[in-house]
Amino acid sequence: MIFNWFKRKKEPENLPQFWKEYTEHFQQKLSEDISKIRFVVLDTETTGFSYDDDRMLCIGAVSIQNNKIEIAHNFEVYINQEKFDPESVKIHGIIKNERITSLSEEEAVIQFLKYIENSVLVAHHANFDITMINRALKRIGLPKLKNKILDTGTLYKRTRILSNLIDRNKNYSLDEIADAYTIDVTDRHTAAGDAFITAIAFLKILGRLKNARKLKNLYRY
Predict the structure, then answer these.
(1) pLDDT higher than 50, residue 211
(2) Which one, of 113, 122, 106, 135, lies nearest residue 48 by Cα?
(3) SS3 sequence of 206-218
(4) Distance of CA 155 to the CA centre of its chain
(5) CA-to-CA distance for 145 and 113, rounded, in angstroms?
(6) Got the DSSP string for the chain?
(7) What is the pLDDT of residue 81?
(8) According to the model, what pLDDT value does residue 92 have?
(9) Which residues contact 116 (CB under 8 A, 6 or more apart)?
(10) Is the whole-model pTM more than 0.70?
């Protein structure tokens, strides 16, 4: 399913130059041919699951073009921690004041916008990651992301329906999809690692969906 995360409104003219450069990419219409579309598969690591109280610690992403993962053209930024939750460290392993290069939330978002341009974004259970990024944009006075979004969790369910193996009430985890497709999960629970795992899963899902060569045919999923 491709989600529309916002209603388009006329934007203020006083928005920063980097946002204007980002929005200019959308003047070019996307191809309907999936092999010609640039997808950006992303994941975020966060201090928790509250959209109001928690913050992103890392954004990881990898691009796909012509059904190939561009490993050399990946993206990963760590974000200065404003909040520290020892419990979440058990999952993502990012320790406060760890000796890694980190950016302010604003600079991380700026770099992310430059990376994604007008690509179709892909994430597993995308609502969470996209909402966290949109909340970061809101904190610096910017509108929501303009990109089209695909959710591998929703798409994977369609492959199960086609093979009559679906539990319609189940939200399949990335681990379950990786296990089903025999995908290595060595780097699980790092933003870059989860983005790469999701990218492999996305390509395998596309290979199992009928009429998946055109972007519009994914709308029904």
Answers:
(1) yes
(2) 135
(3) HHHCCCCCEHHHH
(4) 14
(5) 9
(6) -EE--S---PPPTT--HHHHHHHHGGGSPPPSBGGGPPEEEEEEEES-S-TTT--EEEEEEEEEETTEEEEEEEEEEEE--SS--HHHHHHH---TT-SS-EE-HHHHHHHHHHHHTTPEEEETTHHHHHHHHHHHHHHTT-----S-EEEHHHHHHHHHHHTT---TT----HHHHHHHTT---TTTTSHHHHHHHHHHHHHHHHHHSTTTTBGGGGTT-
(7) 86
(8) 44
(9) 40, 42, 61, 147
(10) yes
> Looking at residues 16-35, what average pLDDT do you find?
95
Rounded Cα distance between 207 and 192, Å, is 23
Q: Which fold has domain 35-218?
A: Nucleotidyltransferase; domain 5 (3.30.420)
Q: How far apart are CA 83 and CA 78, in angstroms?
A: 14
Mean pLDDT of 172-200: 93
Q: How many CB atoms lie within 10 A of CB 215?
A: 19
